[in-house]
Structures are given as structure tokens and as C-alpha cells.
Design a protein that fits this description.
By secondary structure, the chain is an alpha/beta fold. It contains 12 helices and 25 strands.
């Protein structure tokens, strides 16, 4: 069933996987899913446009669609994945759910948190940004990590005393170049100092939030052929969400931390793929550096193209690059250089890339608007639209007890229960979100990732196989583990906070 306001917009056709829309040739058809913009399609010469849904953007089988043209009319209807035909629109859209088979999860045998990772922060002036960046890293980084900060001979006299405040913190190395080497050489110095560790490149004008490094680690270890993983941002060009190449404000009702938490929980784990990453916040697998080398200092001395060239070399060696849509990093964007110099460096870097990798721009264009990327941007729009009615909280999973956890205020709490019929995961008094006849390593790992569990709470005396399975998965995945009222902070090896 569809509602049409103009006879010139013919009824859509849904075959269970592909939507066919009819309009005048060259007409633009705006497609809205569950109240949020998804895509603009352009009708061909024959007067039709098609939208194939590889999977449900919301994770629900039924979707409410709206289709409109500037001058031809508007149609509203509902579709169901896998079932041909149109349906009446329900009163309100269903909540966002997991993306099922489209998810890219860490395998139950993988150990993403056990490998050390070095966070490299090159510094050049902009002390306010630097302080905000380093404080956020120290506050929100968990797992075996090192922080390598390198001052590239800053001219701002405030930088040296600022960095001195971080000296002596365990796991933090504060270094300085004797003379200005440029961004790329400074990054390469950090990569060399990191030894055999994987690395994260983090711009000094970036700010991270809770679970940022855990999210990058999981995405990096979702498959063996992943070379880099880049976070998303409010202001990072092609990695901006929900609108590309724009500065995206956070919802007025939320702080950056709350927005980041909302994406961590609901952006989904169907990581889009691109032929490149972005060094504002990019995790790199060490074996890829060993295979293709570090960044090209001669061609990109001040950056702006060095990570793209590196990623293209990795592509040529058979590796892929992902976008971690559930990891949001705030980015001020190049205050060290200024807008005009940044544009000039970008143009120079792009010229080198065109000469070395003639297909680079075409490959970016082919993947930048992939279905997975459109789903990510759509989910972020949905998340932003719900900000006024939602207060994001960290998520706890309780099995056998809720002792020592503030279920009313501090945590969004899920319960795992067992019975003769198996295991069920859900909220108290609500329908199950997940069920399983047994709880094996794969199920435990999947549920902890899929539901963005930040803390696992087990009964102090629980030594049963299910509790053991959950605890093992939590340690592997970087989930905080609490037994009764005792919280195992050592399992995460967090950075100590900077002394006041």
C-alpha cells in the first residue's frame, strides 16, 4: 500500500531486495528511511531509478520509506526485506538493531587487546589543542598501550612547559626533534620508536572519547587482510559523519562524549571500506609497515597525502582499509598550519598521488558512496535525530547479579539469564534481544561486541562454564570485568591519569 500525492509519481515496485522508483527522466528522487534521509536517486532516460538493499540499514526486517521529487509528488509505504510487495506504514519507526550478517566481528580466537599498540602524536604549536588531545588519550585509553609524543621543534614557547607536565607518567614518552623535520619524518620517527607494536596515528588537534582504542583494535583485527582502520569525525573530510566533506555539529542536547557513546552503541559494525585511511586517527597493523615500508618523507614532507600513498602501497600488497563508524573522534583540523597552507599542501599531495596511483581518485569515488557507507551515515542521522529523547549511558551486561552496579543511573543495563531452554539476553521486563540454546565462545564474543558492552558483571561465586566463557571473551575484547562488587582494573591496564 502506498500513499501518493501526485499521479505523475507512479507506484514503487519492491521485489524483496531491489526497489524500483518511477518518475520523469532526470528527476531527483529523495529516499527517506524511517524518517531520516538515506539517498538521492536520479531517474534515467527511461524514467526509473533503482535502490538495492544488500541488508536492512536499521537491522529490522520492515522499513518505512518516503520517496519525493521536487515537482512530481510524494509516496510513503513500507517494505519488508526478502518479501515482495508494499505495506502500510506503521505509526513509528522501530529502534535501531544490529546489522546481523553484515557485521564484521572479531573472531572468538582473536586477541585484539593482547597486542601492544603505540599511539603517536606529532606536535607543532597549538598548545590548547595538544593539551585537550593528550588529556583525552590519558583519560580514555585502555589496553596495553604506549603514548609517544614528539614535538617537531614548535615555535610556540608554551609547548615545552606543557609537555613537561606529562613526563614521568607510566607508558608516556615525551620527545622533541632538535630541528623541525616536518610531519611525515616525525611520524616515521614515532613508528620506528614503537618497535614491533601496531601503531595509531593521532593528530594533536583531535580529541578521543571512551572506547576509542578498543573500537580501533577490534576493527583492525576483524580480518587478517586489514591494513588500517580510521575513525569517523565531525570534521575530517571523507571521514566526516553524517555528511561528507562538511563540519558536522554534534546534537545540541549532547556533549561530544555522549555523541561518541551513542555511535559506539548504535552506528553498527558493518565497517565501510575505502582505498585509503586518514592520519587524523588511523590504526595501522605492524606487519603492513614491515611489508610496504613507512611513509614517504621525500614526496610528502609536511603530510597531506602520505597516508594515502601508504594505503595505496598496502592495497597493491593485497590489504584493505576500513572505516570504524562506531569510533567518533573530534577534530579541529590543522590549526598548526592554517586553512590556506593546508589547502596548498593538499593540492601538492594530490598531484603526487595522481602521478603514482592513476586510479586512486576513481577507486575512492567508487567506494566512497558504497551501500555500507550510506548505511553508516544514515544510522548517524537517525542517532542525531533521537538526541532530545535519549541520554546515552555506558552499557553493562549482568549475569547472575547486579551487585555493585548502578542500574538506575550510571548504566544502561542488559541482563543475561539462563533456563532449561538456554540463554536469553535483554532488558529487565522486556522481550529478549538475543537467545541461544547454549553459550559458546562465538556467542559470548558476538553478544559483547554487538551490544557494545562496556562492563561485564558476574556473581562473585560464579565458576560455571557460562561465566568463565563470558569472562574470557571480556578480557580478549577489552570489556571491563566485575565479579560481585570487585572490579578488575588490572585486566585493562589503563593509563594512569595525569597528576593534578
Amino acid at each position: 500500500m502506498s500513499s501518493l500525492t501526485s499521479s505523475s509519481l507512479l507506484p514503487p515496485v519492491w521485489d524483496g531486495r531491489c526497489l524500483t522508483l518511477h518518475a520523469l527522466p532526470a528527476a531527483t528522487l529523495g529516499v527517506v528511511i524511517d524518517g531520516s534521509r538515506f539517498i538521492d536517486l536520479v531517474a534515467g532516460e527511461e524514467g526509473s531509478a533503482k535502490l538495492e538493499l544488500a541488508f536492512s540499514p536499521s537491522g529490522n526486517a520492515r522499513l518505512a520509506l518516503g520517496v519525493a521529487t521536487a515537482d512530481a509528488g510524494h509516496a510513503t509505504f513500507a517494505i519488508e526485506l526478502g518479501q515482495p510487495g508494499l505495506h502500510a506504514v506503521e505509526a513509528s519507526p522501530q529502534p535501531l538493531r544490529n546489522l546481523g550478517a553484515a557485521e564484521q566481528l572479531v573472531a572468538p580466537e582473536a586477541t585484539p587487546m593482547q597486542r601492544e599498540i603505540a599511539i603517536i602524536v606529532p606536535v607543532y604549536n597549538a598548545p590548547d589543542d595538544v593539551e585537550r588531545c593528550l588529556d583525552s588519550v590519558l583519560a580514555h585509553t585502555t589496553g596495553p598501550s604506549r603514548l609517544i609524543v614528539i614535538d617537531d621543534a614548535s615555535t610556540d614557547v608554551r609547548i615545552a612547559p606543557l609537555l613537561d607536565r606529562y613526563r614521568g607518567i607510566a607508558g608516556v614518552d615525551i620527545l622533541a626533534n632538535a630541528q623541525n623535520l616536518g610531519f611525515t619524518a616525525t611520524v616515521n620517527r614515532g613508528i620506528a620508536l614503537a618497535g614491533e607494536a601496531d601503531v595509531v596515528l593521532l593528530n594533536a588537534d583531535a580529541e578521543v572519547a571512551a572506547s576509542w582504542l578498543t573500537g580501533l583494535r577490534r576493527a583492525l583485527h576483524a580480518a587478517d587482510d586489514i591494513a588500517t582502520v580510521t575513525a569517523v569525525s565531525d570534521n575530517a573530510g571523507a571521514f566526516s559523519v553524517p555528511e561528507l566533506e562538511r563540519e558536522n555539529p554534534f546534537p545540541a542536547a549532547w556533549t561530544f562524549a555522549e555523541t561518541a557513546l551513542a555511535l559506539w552503541q548504535d552506528a553498527g559494525l558493518a565497517y565501510p571500506q575505502l582505498p585509503t585511511g586518514n592520519g587524523f586517527c588511523m590504526a595501522i597493523r605492524r606487519q603492513v609497515i614491515a611489508a610496504v615500508g613507512a611513509f614517504d618523507v621525500a614526496a610528502f614532507p609536511q603530510g597531506y597525502g602520505e597516508e594515502n600513498d601508504f594505503c595505496q602501497r598496502a592495497c597493491a600488497a593485497g590489504y584493505r582499509h576500513l572505516i570504524a563508524g562506531n569510533v567518533l573522534v573530534r577534530h579541529a583540523r590543522s590549526r598548526s598550519f592554517g586553512h590556506e597552507r593546508r589547502q596548498a599542501l593538499g593540492r601538492a599531495g594530490m598531484q603526487v598521488l595522481r602521478e603514482r596511483w592513476p586510479r586512486y581518485e576513481a577507486d575512492v569515488g567508487a567506494q566512497l558512496f558504497s551501500f555500507e557507507r550510506r548505511v553508516l551515515d544514515w544510522r548517524v542521522r537517525r542517532i542525531h535525530a533521537e538526541a532530545a529523547s535519549r541520554h546515552p549511558r555506558p552499557r553493562a551486561l549482568c549475569f547472575g547479579t547486579t551487585a555493585g552496579i548502578d542500574t538506575a543511573n550510571a548504566y544502561d543495563t542488559l541482563m543475561l539469564t539462563s533456563s532449561n531452554h538456554g540463554f536469553a539476553l535483554g532488558r529487565h521486563g522486556g522481550p529478549p534481544l538475543e537467545t541461544s540454546a547454549s553459550l559458546d565462545a562465538r556467542t559470548a564474543s558476538t553478544w559483547l561486541q554487538r551490544h557494545a558492552i562496556d562492563r561485564l558483571v558476574l556473581a562473585r561465586e560464579a565458576l560455571d562454564p557460562a561465566s568463565t566463557m563470558l569472562a574470557s571473551a571480556a578480557v580478549r575484547l577489552g570489556v571491563a570485568l566485575q565479579c560481585g562488587e570487585q572490579f578488575d582494573a588490572d585486566a585493562l591496564r589503563s593509563f594512569p591519569r595525569r597528576p593534578a
